Amino acid sequence: NAGVTQTPKFQVLKTGQSMTLQCAQDMNHNSMYWYRQDPGMGLRLIYYSASEGTTDKGEVPNGYNVSRLNKREFSLRLESAAPSQTSVYFCASRAGQAGYEQYFGPGTRLTVT
Amino acid sequence: KQEVTQIPAALSVPEGENLVLNCSFTDSAIYNLQWFRQDPGKGLTSLLLIQSSQREQTSGRLNASLDKSSGRSTLYIAASQPGDSATYLCAGDSGNTPLVFGKGTRLSVIA
């Protein structure tokens, strides 16, 4: 039982390049989330998917897109990376939106130069 | 907009002490509250979940409580150990909404 997995673990991009961060969970969870964590800013929600087939913007969605590929997988895409997107990205999931324990992946450390 | 404050931002205690970490929400309408631990360079690990019908939860040396009337939660750690050194984050939701996180309390337990 792997829980929440994320790939890659580390990535360096040049400004303007694009990339997709992958996330998968094997707990049959309905809800999945993407956060970024920056020093002094805490964890901020980028996008979430309350259930398969739905996605919604969080606090900081600009510059990102998401795809809920199926119930297991939720990807985050940076179309044209900017230095301001240098951060640690975490994927999380829980069984539903209300009253369920949330589990996190190990994170992807992204640097944009 | 819901905001979460965690006090103190950092704390250093000698091994064996009991300690309390605090968390407060600007909107006291918190239904579910979760405490997490984060070690440097790692993801978040869930410690305790207080669901809407509950007021506290216990796991080993950890006890978390939620006062819904004031929108405040505390995490009590008994007999602290050096292995407890980490950042502790609280997060809450208002029912059918994503969790909103505090910025965390960085705890150092000195042997």
Produce the secondary structure layout:
The complex is a heterodimer of chains A (113) and B (111).
Chain A: E1 4-7, E2 10-13, E3 19-25, E4 31-38, E5 42-49, E6 56-57, E7 64-68, E8 74-78, E9 87-94, E10 103-104, E11 108-112
Chain B: E1 4-7, E2 10-14, E3 19-25, E4 32-38, E5 44-50, E6 56-59, E7 62-67, E8 72-77, E9 86-93, E10 100-101, E11 105-110
Parallel strand pairs in B: 2-11
Antiparallel strand pairs in B: 1-3, 3-8, 4-5, 4-9, 6-7, 7-8, 9-10, 9-11
Description:
The complex is a heterodimer of chains A (113) and B (111). With 113 residues, chain A is mainly beta. Chain A has no helices and eleven strands. In chain A, the strands form two sheets. In chain A, strands 2, 4, 5, 6, 9, 10 and 11 form a seven-stranded mixed beta sheet that branches. A four-stranded antiparallel beta sheet of chain A has the order 1-3-8-7, with no helix packed on it. The model of chain A has no long low-confidence stretch (mean pLDDT 96). In chain B, strands 2, 4, 5, 9, 10 and 11 form a six-stranded mixed beta sheet that branches. Chain B has a five-stranded antiparallel beta sheet with strand order 1-3-8-7-6, with no helix packed on it. Chain B starts with a strand and ends with a strand. With 111 residues, chain B is mainly β. The interface between A and B is medium-sized, with 24 and 25 residues.
Task: Kindly state the number of beta strands of chain A.
Answer: 11
Q: Bin the strand percentage of chain B.
A: over 45%
Basic shape of chain A: globular
Structural class of chain B: mainly beta
First-last Cα distance of chain B: 41 Å
Uncertain stretches of 5 or more adjacent residues of chain A: none
Helix and strand pattern of chain B: EEEEEEEEEEE
Largest sheet of chain B: 6 strands, mixed
Strand content of chain A: over 45%
Query: Pairing-aware structural class of the strands and helices of chain A?
Result: mainly beta
Shape of chain B: globular
Tally of contiguous helical segments of chain B: 0
Radius of gyration of chain A: 13 Å
Level of helix content of chain B? under 10%
Mean pLDDT of chain B: 94
Q: Unreliable runs of chain B, pLDDT <50, ≥5 residues?
A: none
Determine Rg of chain B (CA atoms, Å). 13 Å
| Oligomeric form | heterodimer
Number of strands of chain B: 11
